[in-house]
From TrEMBL:
Protein name, entry field: Diaminopimelate epimerase
The entry's keywords: Amino-acid biosynthesis, Cytoplasm, Isomerase, Lysine biosynthesis
Protein task: Catalyzes the stereoinversion of LL-2,6-diaminopimelate (L,L-DAP) to meso-diaminopimelate (meso-DAP), a precursor of L-lysine and an essential component of the bacterial peptidoglycan.
Subcellular location as annotated: Cytoplasm
Residues reported to bind substrate: 11, 72, 82-83, 152, 185, 208-209, 218-219
Xref: SUPFAM superfamilies: Diaminopimelate epimerase-like
Catalytic activity from the UniProt record: (2S,6S)-2,6-diaminopimelate = meso-2,6-diaminopimelate
Originating species: Dactylosporangium sucinum
Length: 284
């Protein structure tokens, strides 16, 4: 089975070209692929499939040819992944499936996303919706945060720099299941001085549902930017967010949310699908 490997600010993905939607993916198979010791290793899987060939996307096939079928590393599916969108777009361009420049649309489970190609890639994300206060518990402490919908759920918890550094995110933070029945990505964000051209700056770590702590989360960066602007009393602005894997820039207004950052394809190869299937029972 052919595959590629790519990442956006350290958030890494196994990319499976499957334009006709014939690969028999299962949660256990995906989890085995993402196993960092026995499989290829990744935060998630991006299946490259035409919208018309996938039941989750065929209704949007007139708006965009390609559907980003995104799976977390534990085999669960997710609505949106901002880094995944950019890596997926970079793969399409390098594979000659879209033009290397200009703008085109992708279908995601959170809707149709416009993508603009360049040295860095800009994705038009769902406009974040800030909606309620909640809490996350970790390291024996409880942190108050703001819930944000970016096509998928987030909880943004402000912390200081020292707390951000010492957080142990090897286990999922405790959250309110009544507010987040399908789980939630939890972001911890510290304030800093904005660089030139930015209105606000945050440094962020994240625990992603279905993947654990990752080097970056694009939709999480958008959530952090939305909360930063909300707390500053701003409707629009440019927010720079540093994550362990690099830097992302969000340009936000009531009408749109643009996420800009790098995306790199680092490898192409073949994986022994039968060996992965034999490993899959360990992840069932």
């Amino acid at each position: 089975m052919r595959f590629a490997k790519g990442h956006g600010t350290g958030n890494d993905f196994v990319i499976l070209p499957d334009p006709d939607g014939v690969l028999p993916l299962t949660p256990a198979f995906v989890a085995a692929l993402c196993d960092r010791r026995r499989g290829i290793g990744a935060d998630g899987v991006l299946r490259v499939v035409r919208s018309a060939a996938h039941p989750d996307a065929e209704a949007s096939s007139a708006a965009a040819e390609w559907f980003m079928d995104y799976w977390n590393s534990d085999g669960s599916q997710s609505e949106m992944c901002g880094n995944g969108v950019r890596v997926y777009a970079r793969y399409l361009a390098e594979a000659g499936l879209v033009a290397p420049e200009g703008t085109f649309n992708l279908v995601t489970r959170a809707g149709v996303v416009p993508v603009t190609m360049g040295e860095e890639i800009t994705a038009g994300m769902p406009v974040p919706r800030v909606y309620v206060q909640s809490e996350a518990g970790t390291n024996g402490a409880v942190f108050t945060g703001t819930a944000v919908d970016v096509g998928n759920p987030h909880l943004v918890c402000p912390v200081d720099e020292a707390t951000l550094e010492r957080l142990d995110l090897t286990a999922a933070p405790a959250i309110d299941p009544l507010i987040f029945p399908a789980g939630v990505n939890v972001e911890f964000a510290a304030v800093g001085n904005p660089p030139a051209g930015a209105d606000l700056y945050r440094r962020m770590r994240v625990y992603e549902r279905g993947s654990g702590e990752t080097q970056s989360c694009g939709s999480g960066v958008c959530a952090v930017a939305a909360v930063a602007l909300h707390h500053a009393g701003l409707e629009s602005g440019v927010v720079v967010v540093d994550v362990p894997g690099g830097r992302l820039t969000v340009t936000s207004s009531p009408a749109e949310c643009l996420l800009r950052g790098p995306a790199v394809i680092v490898a192409h190869g073949d994986v022994d699908a039968q060996a992965i299937r034999q490993l899959a029972p360990l992840h069932s």
